């Protein structure tokens, strides 16, 4: 494995004090898979005490500890390395964090490995011997693209592992073996995932969405009955086949997020963009008619999104709700060859919430997330959009009139100022001068 020069020095020092060093978990798996973007490296140190480990690491930088209950130590000069002593875990409650941790510096690796979730994550790299130790046949599972749990009785103790399996399905594009899949299905049916925090579910969903094939993760959750209600409802909402030959809304959404995964880095907020693509049609189950029409599903989607608890950031929620609201507008404008003022009004509606760039990308992903797309329609859309951008720009026009102008002009009914400013801006887009706009607003004083 590729190891930092300083890390090798630290490892050699640990060994000189009687310790044994293993690199464990995902970094070994990713090295076997040839992944170049290695991140955190977990180091398990045997046969020395927690205090001895801290004393050794202190020679090489500032030591940050996570408490002796976990015996995890970080070194500021090796920010991507976590050092830990071997441990066993005992389930004490229903929550993801409800475990009693038992540190044992001399724990046999055959026992230490049992706390790992999946065989592909149970590989150990023996630093001194320069070889991989594979006690759970993880290398075979990597070779055959299989996701398999290490120990069924321990796997079911942690409901977060269901979402981790979905994440690895999307990240690695592996198949889940039948026993592990059935364990996940049982955990869902027993409502074990109900005990996961919103924050942890959000984190796992984010990691699924940022893979190259996010649909695989959500398809797995569908198969085991783990989709949240607002996504599950999409699976039984059918669409007009002349518009959506791919079938139900869930199938369409999965095609959209896979297309989106290839352009997300071109957007201002890649993660928020992926969430918007996942949720763009969540209003369709509320409004879809028997013949497959879904009138005003964008507005319904904004309402449904109010009840999606996973996203807590106000800025992110504003971005996503704006994308849901306007994801169809550009395509509709192109189809009907809308006037310039419609484009300028849209720029104002999304101003400060979503860029025109991101709205264009979700419009394209929505269009491409179908069974087939007529090339001439797609080309016509880009011709329309590029013309509008070149002539009218991508930013909302600065307002000619603000609240101070209204006050200076003699308006006193402050309760009407919001409506007055909105109308003033629209009159500005229509070409009215500042003076003419202010005169036209006098009707508000008569209310």
TrEMBL record:
<dbReference type="InterPro" id="IPR003607">
    <property type="entry name" value="HD/PDEase_dom"/>
</dbReference>
<protein>
    <recommendedName>
        <fullName>tRNA nucleotidyltransferase</fullName>
    </recommendedName>
</protein>
<keyword id="KW-0819">tRNA processing</keyword>
<dbReference type="InterPro" id="IPR002646">
    <property type="entry name" value="PolA_pol_head_dom"/>
</dbReference>
<dbReference type="InterPro" id="IPR043519">
    <property type="entry name" value="NT_sf"/>
</dbReference>
<dbReference type="GO" id="GO:0005524">
    <property type="term" value="F:ATP binding"/>
</dbReference>
<dbReference type="GO" id="GO:0016779">
    <property type="term" value="F:nucleotidyltransferase activity"/>
</dbReference>
<dbReference type="GO" id="GO:0008033">
    <property type="term" value="P:tRNA processing"/>
</dbReference>
<dbReference type="Pfam" id="PF01743">
    <property type="entry name" value="PolyA_pol"/>
</dbReference>
<keyword id="KW-0547">Nucleotide-binding</keyword>
<keyword id="KW-0694">RNA-binding</keyword>
<dbReference type="InterPro" id="IPR006674">
    <property type="entry name" value="HD_domain"/>
</dbReference>
<dbReference type="InterPro" id="IPR050124">
    <property type="entry name" value="tRNA_CCA-adding_enzyme"/>
</dbReference>
<feature type="domain" description="HD">
    <location>
        <begin position="249"/>
        <end position="351"/>
    </location>
</feature>
<keyword id="KW-0692">RNA repair</keyword>
<dbReference type="Pfam" id="PF01966">
    <property type="entry name" value="HD"/>
</dbReference>
<dbReference type="GO" id="GO:0046872">
    <property type="term" value="F:metal ion binding"/>
</dbReference>
<keyword id="KW-0548">Nucleotidyltransferase</keyword>
<dbReference type="GO" id="GO:0042245">
    <property type="term" value="P:RNA repair"/>
</dbReference>
<keyword id="KW-0808">Transferase</keyword>
<feature type="domain" description="Poly A polymerase head">
    <location>
        <begin position="21"/>
        <end position="148"/>
    </location>
</feature>
<dbReference type="InterPro" id="IPR032828">
    <property type="entry name" value="PolyA_RNA-bd"/>
</dbReference>
<dbReference type="GO" id="GO:0003723">
    <property type="term" value="F:RNA binding"/>
</dbReference>
<feature type="domain" description="tRNA nucleotidyltransferase/poly(A) polymerase RNA and SrmB- binding">
    <location>
        <begin position="174"/>
        <end position="231"/>
    </location>
</feature>
<keyword id="KW-0479">Metal-binding</keyword>
<keyword id="KW-0460">Magnesium</keyword>
<comment type="similarity">
    <text>Belongs to the tRNA nucleotidyltransferase/poly(A) polymerase family.</text>
</comment>
<keyword id="KW-0067">ATP-binding</keyword>
<dbReference type="Pfam" id="PF12627">
    <property type="entry name" value="PolyA_pol_RNAbd"/>
</dbReference>
